[in-house]
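During the first year of the project, the team set up a workflow for recording each protein of interest as an amino acid sequence followed immediately by a discrete structure-token representation. This format lets reviewers and collaborators read both layers of information side by side without switching files. As required by the reporting guidelines, we include two representative entries from the current panel. The first entry is reproduced here exactly as it appears in our internal archive.
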Amino acid sequence: LKIGQKLNEGKTKQIFELVDQPGLVLVQSKDQITAGNAVRKDQMEGKAAIANKTTSCVFKLLQESGIKTAFVKQHSDTAFIAAHCEMIPIEWVCRRVATGSFLKRNPGVKEGYRFSPLKMEMFFKDDANNDPQWSEEQLLEAKFSLAGLTIGQCEVDIMNRSTVAIFEILEKAWATQNCTLVDMKIEFGVNVKTQEIVLADVIDNDSWRLWPAGDRSQQKDKQVYRDLKEVTPEAMQMVKRNFEWVSERVKLLLEPKASGRVVVLMGSVSDMAHCEKIRKACTSYGIPCILRVTSAHKGPDETLRIKAEYEGDGVPTVFVAVAGRSNGLGPVMSGNTAYPVINCPPLTPDWGAQDIWSSLRMPSG
């Protein structure tokens, strides 16, 4: 990369132009951690790499979910390439659980109060005045014009709804790691090339509160650093371990997870060839397919035990009953599970036409 002049520098990152790639910039993280608008400021070796890895993973996850972001790709351990944006000077804060500054501004609300729907707040980025809280009306009256785009009602609605969507995507993702996303802050920018509003800046462990198992005492985010009574080498190591914990877990959010499965129950191993065709079809759609042998005629208790193995773990399931001749398997399954049951009997040249009626002609309910 041919790196040009420095375009901007914040407390934890620097932005450089890319001479040979117009419309793109390099976002370089710094080994610095701050709190209280940099009233507290310390060096933390390795933080740049940790923050960059976290941000890159989060933006990839959001892009896969359909969110428009400035992120292009990770460039190195400590930097990523992004679309050049003019930043909208508003910090959008989305809260699921009441804690932190919200409690100070809203006396009488107890910590842990759960917001449903999500609580949205916005703050004007102004370090000299400690980032004052703004209303939507103030934002509209400011009439910000960035990269040729004037921020009006439509743009405010886009940012508002995008913030909720971003939070809900990350909330569900962190829930898979038994971790509660308590609140988070994000910023938007206007892409100078397309004039689109996109999620910009960074989302790392400075951006949110994370409580494993919903327990504040286990918090892993920057609040641990804010809460330090004294900054010591030992305390900073603890903070760094928390940041590393988050960066390792955030990688797991990108791993594909089965959104459902098909369980094929066959009355006999002689039906295996027919069932393999079903599995092949499921696999072509990326759906996990499990084959089991059980006879509802000869062993109904075993059939119901197998059924129970796939209930209660939260994975959406469809059962496929494969039984020839008089099909008892499908009706037994259908009468004992809330999951869908599909009859798919193997047809034979001799009795196939007659056998099919035991799968098609069944009582309602």
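The second entry, processed by the same pipeline in the following quarter, appears below.
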Amino acid sequence: MEESKRNLVDEDAKASLDIWRYVFGFADIAAAKCAIDLKIPEAIENHPSSQPMTLAELSSTVSASPSHLHRIMRFLVHQGIFKEVPIKDGLTTTGYTNTPLSRRMMITKRDGKSLAPFVLFETSREMLAPWLRLSTVVSSPVNGSHDPPPFDAVHNKDVWALAEDNPCFSEMINEAMACDARRVVPRVARACQDLFEGVAKVVDVGGGNGEAMGILVKEFPWIKGFNFDLPHVINVAQVLDGVENVGGDMFDSIPKCDAVFIKWVLHDWGDKDCIKILKNCKEAVPAHIGKVFIVESVIRENKKTMIVEERDEKLEHVRLMLDMVMMAHTSTGKERTLKEWDFVLNEAGFARYEVRDIDDVQCVIIAYMS
């Protein structure tokens, strides 16, 4: 009995602290965006001295108010994004250095680690406003209303229509997807190297600016790559060696190939549309040897019965956050469990599939024709 009381007291004490994360939690995102906007990680990284960068030097470099910058840096140091360390010059006590986390916020880096474009995309006005209407989509089935999805309600159109009408927003989407491709596609290539042997033509469905396909053709030089997306996306796609940009609509048809690569597309759609896209992928590849590489998250099931490592738990948290993103930003999209992936793959008519782990938020589901 006493132990039970102690546990309740401990839970209540923890809750009294945890609640503040939900009161002021947006400060984390806003402060990180500020650092990216001001290019603070780049300023520290490019500091000519071997010493940490002082507040005065940093404020001069990024053209910021020293008093306000001090407060931002104090917060970001507390969050572990930057470090504040002693300086041995006898004049100033401390200066700032980067960390592996702050280097992932360099907007100018294209190294396969930085997610700065993704942060800027998700903190844009267009993407933030729908979050305030999340409760409407959750309550709709109960109250019988037919409220539009949060994104549509705010912008009077879905995310894809807005991107077609707004080139700047479309570019933000493409840059966000490209920075994730630089991070994930090399992992996919390592995990599936055997499966790309003998594959001559690959189509990346919803490939954006072509970054993912560009990486694949470098990893596997014998491949002829096709970057396939909507015409307004293809019109501004990169021109890359070994990659042909092709405009079209995945709901109509997909160019013929030996294998389809489709990353972070299917989670944007409900089961009916997802099955339609998968059927078109199936039609695009050879009947006996064709395969479809699906790079998506798989939500874990039966959590309470599993012993989970800390890294796996953090990855799962990201997957669950992504599911919330799908509710806020798409009409019918969702992250899926393996059982839910099994359903759409079987409904699309694939003979079998396997899942390969890449130690990431996403994994690779390979769907086979036979």
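For the second entry, the following points were noted during internal review. Residues 167-191 form the longest helix (25 residues). Residues 45 and 95 are 13 Å apart (CA to CA). Both points are flagged for discussion at the upcoming steering committee meeting.
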